[in-house]
Each structure stands twice: as C-alpha cells, then as structure tokens.
Amino acid sequence: MPYVRFMRVYVYSVRVFFGRRVMIIRNLRKLKAPRMSRSIGMKSGKYESSSEGGKLWGGRFSTDTDPVMEKFNASIGFDKRMWREDITGSKAYAAALWKASLITKDEATSILVGLDKVYQEWEKNKFKILNTDEDIHTANERRLSEIIGSEIGGKLHTGRSRNDQVVTDVRMWLRKELVTLFNLITRFITAITGRAETEINILMPGYTHLQRAQPIRWSHWLLSYASALLRSLTDIQSLHHKVNVLPLGSGALAGNPFNIDRAFLCKELNFGSVSINSLDATGSRDFISDTLFWCAQLSSTLSRFAEDLILYSTREFGYVRISDRYSTGSSLMPQKRNSDGLELIRGKAGTITGRCMGFMMTMKGLPSTYNKDLQEDKIVLFDVCDSVEDLLQIACGIVSTLQIDPVKMREALSMDMLATDVAYYLVRKGVAFRTAHGISGQVVKAAEDRGCALNELPLSALQKICPNFDEDTAAIWDFENSVEQYQAPGGTSRARVADQVKQINLEIKKLPLYEKLSA
C-alpha cells in the first residue's frame, strides 16, 4: 500500500498532562494508510443522527422520551466540565479514523478544524447547550455537525461508543486533577516545613488520650502532619499509574471492529498504556474508587489536623490564634470568634468519606461492563475533588497565617510530664526499665502525697525510694534537656526535627511527578 503524505494540520494546542503545550495531532506525515474504501463511512445524502431530536441512540425508538425521563437521564449539567478532554479525545480519534482509512484526509481535516471551532466556543464561553444535548459527547458532536455538516460530522463516532468515550474523558480529566492536588499538597507541606524550621525552639505539651504526656517541640507536632501528607503525595504516583490507561478503542464492550490503532491513540493522548480487556475498560471504575478512598484518607488527616488546631485555639489551651481570614463570629454573641474554617475541614471530611462509601455501594452490585449507574461516578468524583481542593487551600492558608503563643505553650508544661524522664534517669544508672518504671510511679505518688511538684521532692525522699538517685537528679527537671534526649531519627530533639524538615523536602523532590512538573 502506498505512503500518503497527509497535509499538515495545525490544530488548537491544548494543555495536557505535565503542563506542556503539545499538539494533539502532530503533523501527521508519512503515515501508512490503505486505500479508502467506498463501502465504509456515511452514504451520500443528508445524515440524520436519529429519529428523535438528534440523539445518538434514537434510531430504534418510535416515541419521544418522557420529559421527566429526559431530565433524569441527562448528564450535561455536570459532565460539561470535561469539554476539553472530550474534544481532545475526538481529535485523536479523528486522526485514528483517517489512519485506518475510515475517513478521507479532507474529512479528517474538516473534523479537526470543526473541533477547533467547538473548542474556541467553549473557551470563550459562547457554546450554547441545547435541551436535546444529553451529555457532553452529544453536545460536542451536535455542534460539530452544525459547523461542518452532519454527513462528515456523523463519521467521527465510527466504531466509538460513549462507553469508551466517557471513561477516556474521565481518565484524562482525573490525571490532570491529580496534578492539581499534588501541587496543593506540596504547597501545604512547604508551608508546614517553613514554620517548623523557623519555630524549632518552641516547646509545647505532647498529648496522648487528650492528656498532657511528654514535652515536645511545636515543630515536631507540625511535621507529624507533613509526614502524613508526604504519604498522600507518594500515593498519587500509584494513582496516576492506574488512571493513565487508555480505554478508547474498546467500543461499547466488545472492542473496535475497524482495526483502530490504539497504540497511536495512546501516544497522541499521552497515556502510559492501553487497556487489556475491552469489557473491563468500559465497565471498571476502580480507579475512581481508589481516588475517592485516597481523598477520604487525605481528608481524614486534614480533619485530625483541624481538630488539634481547634482545641489549641480555644481559651482553654490558648496556644494558637487563627487569622480573621479563616474565622467567623456569632450572630448573637459578639465576643465569639469561631474557627469555622477548621470546623468545615473536619465536617467535610465526613462528607467525603460518605461519598466514597456510597460509590462503593453503587459499584458492588453492578453486572459486568457499562451500566447507566456509572453516570453517577462523575457527580461523586467532581464533588469530592472540588472539596479536597478547598480543604487543602484553606488548611494551607490557616497554617501560613496563624499566630502562636510560645509563652502559653511553655506554661502548659508541668513537672509531672517528666515522670518518664525519671525512669530514663534510672535506666542510665543501670536499673532495668520495668523496675525503673515502677520506681518512677512511686516518685509521682510521693509528690502527690506531699502536695508538691516532682522537682520539689528533696533528694533524701528520692533516695528513700531508690538509692540510685544522686545529686545529678536536678538535670531531670529541665524541659529542654527532656526533648534533647530524643536523638534517635524521628525524635523531638532539635537536630532530629531539623533532619525531618530536610528529609521531607528532599522526599518531595524525589517523586517522579515533582520531577516532571519541575522540568
């Protein structure tokens, strides 16, 4: 078969994954294409897409759809946000149709130019959605046919089903959304590590069971959330790998009968691989379930972060003050200053988790391949991703602007929090830890019986409990000494906290997604 030099078609550049400006159809030159078959494609004459109002599926129906069903069935209200992805996918598919000799080069050119015009209408907010536009695919194809004629426009869907089209759009949208979320988490972590580095000398109580436990550095508390968020960043990498699989070319369920070059589509649309099985490709939404669970887990981390700061910002604690930018007041009590930004983070975490569980319930009873229930996936996915974006931006803003009260934090430290240090002191004197733990408990009881603090017990009283106590016990009652003893990696000593800042920042830069975004 002869080589055909296809005319250079410069189509509208769109921003795709990793932020590069690339051409969806790259100067298609010297593509091997068999001779065009006259038996394939649309017959001459005016093409009607269906017998019912321009629907893509109405040919076998004899009556109009009930208006209530029309509204109930439509998804254009929410899936229109994928207009870019839908047009991008259609451009690549048009090129694949030409490559398979299902359309001529003139028809391919006409489709590409027409899709550019549709793209520009969306971009300029001039695209008019009609009542008959059931979804974004119907809307874009209807408008394309209006621009270039239905005889040519109607060929774009050859061998393609909305089943493989919609899941392609969703995957393209989601991989871009993951980049957005990656950037927001990175920004949040950077805000945390920045504060941790500059406020490393501030001490505060560490809590277990919401009770004061041991002294720690304020920076150590901050970095506990940076560490958790770093895991979320790492998980995005595996999520992206799962999302970045091309389903286009799977048809409704059985595959594509026209020998469409799926490897070509994969390259044009910047996917990492091609789906293995067409039944699985059109009906599977585990990549959405995984994303929703990831969002639920992330929101849970943010909720715990918010709960801590809500407590720390109350008068009962007084450790931090949330900026007015993220607080509200009471309509009745003028003195109130509520941390509503944090409370909404905590509240929305529950909603996000509920969305995840609800979608899992939708999926669990579905038979194989595509079912209309799957239309609900986008409602859930869009809503959850939008909420997580908001949560991350609000959380980052709060961390960047909150004020801390180092004096209140220091005043909250009490000598009883050094009871464990008493045991550590005895261990260093050669006493077995379990024995030292019991002795430390006796020291605490002795102080309670005397009605004094631990450091106020005389050496004689300590030696009466255990002869291993010596003059150097005075060093126990120093909070700075206490935190500095935790020199093992991950600990709350100054050096180890500084190491954590460096390690977290370094780990972010090692992530492949960060490297590609920074390229």
Average pLDDT over all residues: 88
Radius of gyration based on Cα positions: 31 Å
Provide the CATH topology of the largest domain.
Fumarase C, Chain A, domain 2
Number of helices: 20
Strand arrangement, major sheet:
1-4
Low-pLDDT stretches are 1-52
Which descriptor suits the 3D outline? elongated
Concise overview:
By secondary structure, the protein is mainly α. It has 20 helices and ten strands.
Structural commentary:
This protein is mainly α and 519 residues long. It has 3 domains: 3-158, Fumarase/aspartase (N-terminal domain) (Fumarase C, Chain B, domain 1, Orthogonal Bundle), CATH 1.10.275.10; 164-412, Fumarase C, Chain A, domain 2 (Up-down Bundle), CATH 1.20.200.10; 415-485, Ribonucleotide Reductase Protein R1, domain 1 (Orthogonal Bundle), CATH 1.10.40.30. Helix content is 56%, strand content 6%. It is built from 20 helices and 10 strands. The strands form 5 sheets. It has a two-stranded antiparallel ribbon with strand order 1-4. The protein has a two-stranded antiparallel sheet with strand order 2-3. Mean pLDDT is 88; it is low at 1-52.
